[in-house]
Design brief:
By secondary structure, the chain is an alpha/beta fold. The protein contains 4 helices and 4 strands, in the order βαβααβαβ. It is elongated.
Length: 95
């Protein structure tokens, strides 16, 4: 399997996303979960991917006051995501 390619799971439901993951099983090991899928499936989709031993890029584009970004980042890390995106107009305070 390769983790040099990240496949976007741009679906509005968990079932369709996991169907693609199943179709690419043994070939792709890194997937992006964006706002649409995360909003419809929640952290369950992250847990399902991690349970399969896959890598996850959580692309929710965290951009808020520093305290909120910090807590959202901690929540993402607790799910075991491998990468997530921050927007840092709040500078170092958001880190």
């Amino acid at each position: 399997m390769t983790d040099k390619i990240i496949i976007a799971l741009d679906y509005s439901n968990r079932e369709d996303a996991l169907k693609l993951v199943e179709n690419l099983s043994g070939v792709i090991s890194f997937y992006k979960v964006g706002l649409e899928l995360y909003t419809s499936a929640g952290p369950v989709i992250i847990r399902a991917l991690k349970a399969k031993g896959l890598k996850v890029f959580l692309d929710l584009k965290f951009f808020d006051i520093p305290n909120t970004v910090a807590k959202a980042s901690q929540a993402a890390a607790s799910l075991g995501v491998d990468i997530f995106k921050l927007h840092l107009l709040a500078r170092r305070e958001a880190l």
